[in-house]
Amino acid sequence: MDFILASQSKTRCCILRNAALPFCNISPNIDELNIMKSLVSEGTPHRDIPNVLAEFKAKKISSKNIDSWVLGCDQILSLDGEVFSKPDSKAQLSANISQMAGKTHQLITANVIYKGAKPMWRHTAVSNLTMHPMSPLEVQNFVTKFWLEAQNSSAGYCFEKTPHLFSKVKGNWFDIMGISISQILNFLHQNNYANIATTPKIVAVLGSPISHSRSPIMHRYWLQKNNICGDYIAIDTPEKNFSNTVNVLAEVGVSGFNVTLPHKEAALNLSHSKTKRALEIGAANTLIVDSSGNILADNTDGYGFISNLEANGGSWLPNAGPALVIGAGGAARAILVSLLAAGTPQIYLTNRTKSRAQNLSVELSDKIEVIDWDEKEEWLSRISTLVNTTSLGMTGKPALTISLKTLNKKALVTDLVYTPVKTPLLTQAEKLGFNTVSGVGMLLYQGVPGFHQWFGLPPKVDLELVKLVSG
Question: What CATH number has the domain bearing residue 222?
């Protein structure tokens, strides 16, 4: 193998794969902790410590692989003159986080490349991260949730999972992850090696909860299918930290975001510019960060909804008759706007909190009539399209309580929920012989415009992807 990573780090391996750089990885098996302790006791400047460790790794592997380029990397956390090591217990992690809370620390990342047992290149990056103040209870909750990941993190907080912990960050995503990939590739390109490899673009989906999201499956499929260097990750983001988290991630180089519950309205408000459809809907599910750090807000939910019904709804036509939309949240806004734009002549809207539906109808159109939640079944015989936009029926949530026995026999039933793919509502509709469309297609089609904006290529929704996301 021409390029070797002297590390077993899953994060560094993932970044190299996402950059399309062929490599193998070999563990150098050095006693990092004792070497670091020795360097600290000798008064070694903190900036030099990761350099020494990275060089130990690269030199050891290079001595046995003379013809290969060998990359050694290391990272330390420095705060108030102290070097933090990987936590070896929950108590140590708790103490470290408590000490970092409310303060600015440095992550020092060193990269060294050897060839022929000789150093050929080195690079050091210093990132400054300011953590929000944290109460003892918040620290305890963090330790409980992230202990398994923290054991393998030099910082102890797994930034890729916890950017909400930080009020300000000055640095680069990849430096923070522990490998300065852009500088590494620049060096290799200058030496006529790995000319195809490119610094990956990073995009994230933000929500809370987010574990159910299948967006990473979809976007990673498109990235691999189209040989694009990049990655798409899911980050659970508390509502109170949403805006600051977006700004922090944009600052470190994340190219864009999908946004799901409960952040869609906040996403629109924090953007620097907004598309027409995002303004009409009053919420955003897609954010694009330009080279200057400015954020464009878009909403592709309506596009995805209509595209899904057109592709999978058989002979469905939006203007065939009225629609009944269940729910009045951010997703409902997109559905209402898209149905009206597609020519649906009348929409009946119902929500458990009737006042929210009433406010929405007044804001959007006089073609929207609000009906009582408990009377929704009385309107089923009049409609051609039934849409559930609530979370009822989602895995872990109660089912939507409704009988479809009086539904117009030619009506189409669709559910925005896609976990499970067949919700109780769709199962009931299928048993009664109605045309049904799952929410998976909407997920896929709404992702197309965002992927195009972030990665520069319009992806295709194909059967392989449908099966992958539905599985």
Answer: 3.40.50.10860
If asked whether residues 161 and 123 sit together in one domain, one would say yes
Instruction: List own/partner pairs for 336-340 with CB under 8 A and 24 or more apart.
Output: 336/360, 336/364, 336/365, 336/368, 337/277, 337/280, 337/281, 337/302, 337/364, 338/301, 338/302, 338/303, 338/305, 338/306, 339/306, 339/385, 339/387, 340/364, 340/365, 340/367, 340/368
Range of the domain at 243: 204-299+444-470
How far, rounded to the nearest angstrom, does the alpha carbon of residue 310 sit from its chain's CA centroid? 28
Q: Are residues 53 and 135 in the same domain?
A: yes
Q: Is 195 contained in some domain?
A: no
Q: Strands (DSSP E) along 269-364, which ranges?
A: 273-274, 286-289, 295-298, 323-326, 347-350
Q: How far apart are CA 242 and CA 233, in angstroms?
A: 16
Which pLDDT value is given to residue 1? 60
With respect to residue 197, please indicate whether it lies within any of the assigned structural domains. Answer: no
Which candidate, 260, 263, 225, places its Cα nearest to that of 241?
A: 263
pLDDT per position as a tens digit, 286-308: 999 999 999 999 999 999 999 99
Residues marked active site are found at 264
Based on the domain organization, do 29 and 177 belong to the same domain?
A: yes
Report yes or no on whether pTM surpasses 0.70. yes
pLDDT in tens, 56-74: 999 999 999 999 999 999 9
Please give the Cα distance from 316 to 413 (Å, whole number).
10
Regarding whether 383 and 258 lie in a shared domain, the answer is: no
- Helical H segments across 4-83, by residue range: 10-18, 32-41, 48-62
Looking at the 3D structure of the chain, how many domains does it have?
3
Any domain includes 199: no
Give CA separation, 142 vs 91, 106, 150, 162, in Å. 12, 20, 10, 9
